[in-house]
Amino acid sequence: MADAQNILRNSAPFADFDDDAISRLSEASELRSFAAGERIVSRGTHSTAVGIVVVGELALELKTELQHLEVERPTVGAVFGEFGLLTGDPPVADIHAKVDSQVLMVPHTAILQEIAKNPLATRGFATLMASRYASRRDNADFQDLAQHARRVRDESGTTLPVLVVNLGSSSLKYALFQHQKSLLCGLVERIGSNEAQITQCRDDQKETKQLRRITHEQALDQMFAWLIHPELGALDRIEDIGAVGHRVVHGGNRFTHSVPINDEVLDELKRCALLAPLHNPINVLGIEYCRKKVSPATPMVAVFDTAFHMTMPEQAYTYALPSKLAQSEQLRRYGFHGISHKYVSQAATQFLEKPPGTLKIVSCHLGNGSSVAAINHGRSVDTSMGMTPLEGLVMGTRSGDVDPGLILHLMRLGYTEERLDELLNRQSGLLGLSGLASDMRSVEKAADAGHEGAMLAIAAYCYRVRKYIGAYAAAMGGIDVLIFTGGIGENAINVRQRIASDMGFIGIHIDTERNRTPSADISVALDISTPESTVRVLIVPTDEEAMIARETLEALERTGLHDILSARKDRQIPIGISVRHVHLQTDHIRPLFGRDELTPLRELSQKGNWACDEMVDLVGPRGTIERVRVLGPARENTQVEISRTDEFKLGIDAPIRASGDVANSPGLTLRGPAGSIDIEEGVICAYRHIHMDPEDALAFGLRDRDIVRVHIPGERSVIFGDVLVRVYPGFSLEMHLDTDEANAAEVHPGMTCTIESIQQRT
Length: 762
What we know:
762 residues, Jelly Rolls, 9-stranded mixed beta sheet, globular
């Protein structure tokens, strides 16, 4: 496209792209026409391209229900959509044509591929972003409206049709998604019995077919046949499947996020069968069989039920067993239902119009299998299930928590391993207590008729859930949202009422009338809390298949970054060791030091930041740490950054947070030469993180808030996971570790690291 090549050559952000790159970009681009008033970009929708105005004039507007701000009027030659390369955030503004206009749309993916080949090509985009960062940062009206707009997200994503496969011991759930919308869903039930059947739904159509005794392979064959069913199917041929996402129950210690499946991953999944002998072998069977049925070029992704909980801190996942034994046999708490807990926590955040990762959530997935999860600022920090799904709540047929001594006692009575497994996994829970059924509906019906065993079963079930909610509110230092999901959580009105009643002491008040709303009337979520409730109590229908589809696309996107990161393997990143320090807000300076200004002592590696001459003492409930350096300039909120060792000395349990995220963190006393102040919040352990400016970020193919794995070479070669990427104009490329992390890895000033891979993209 000759015109496109000329447009690109004359556009400043593309000035450093060579002729071959310009040619490839022009082939990937699309010249689109827009009528006056026609919308080009909608706020909250997924950004996929950079636009260059070729003809006409556009309007970039921020709107809320009460305010309207026209931010810019892009004219010929103007560029928009560049921040999507860097942040991945949906646009915060609407863009429409003021007059009849033409725009060249250049896909982000094509731009990133060219940047991977030529890092110098980032300079034009970095310059543009830096200037826009500065102008918008200083526009207070823009910042206020943008903050509101950021709460609106649309996970529309790619156009790939994604098949989701959830193969269990006796059932197969499947669904086909495109643009994160379900095209169809199906269920094969009672695999291996004479009563097997398949049901498939598309739009308002539903069809059920009885099957003879079938194997898991035959169930998968039936699924593939119905995907291309002339009436109920959504595909013309199996080769049209763009990707396949498989639910895998157990990922062990290795898999902390969803991963594309190759032979190495498949071998590791087989080894994980020791941890989930009833589930992982079936999951592997499904993967291997699907590999034979779809095109060899069709990517497959394993989405783990355990992965979401791999962010639990060590004290939460550790059993108090001898360390060597626990490590050698992988004896630890893993947690399950992670796909569901992640889905409903994200849905709740969106429903409440809160920025991602800002809430303390207790999520109750209540069904035949039940679990509670504590989700602090987007990360699972505890969950009721443990090494196996047997730990925790009373369930349909599982006992949940029991004294381990009880098992030893039963063994002395002659119970074998097989008999204990049958007792605890399949004969206990609601079934064991009621003596009637494992289904809550049947147990409730019997309880209504006065059956004592059924009444006890419900009482024990609800009591255990209440106990975990209270425990997790305490563990997180508060609770903002309580979620009910799963078959029981979404449908059992009386169970929700019983669990949430009389919890006003932690701010939970449930509206009895709203709680009676039928689950069929709920779309994204329903708020059943009263106006005076400080905790939002939500019913959120779970959609594990939708979450698996989303995770599949995100895993493939991370894979697409592999070439870029591989090309930067030799790019060394300096390591800085961050000792404990304090950032002060302006009105805290005088009470501590008797003056209004801080005294710069020396410049820090990050431009515009300095160590101050001033120091304070940190006074905690247990002890004091003296002479802690204050860093400048002053910030909006006072923040104290400490290490885990410091926590113990002070007697404070500080959350791991990104710098600046201090809401609902613990406080302490700051003591200075002129006086002391008590801060109610502000003490955190900072994420290990990497600072980079937009040019570096584009060169690495990374975005602000990406999570990466970092390799530090040396005598003790170390891989650090969960490293947060922070991008801002003026940042110098540097990784920061706290003193505990540096000491444990024997890292010292002057050492460098490289980025190994991307773990997570928010």
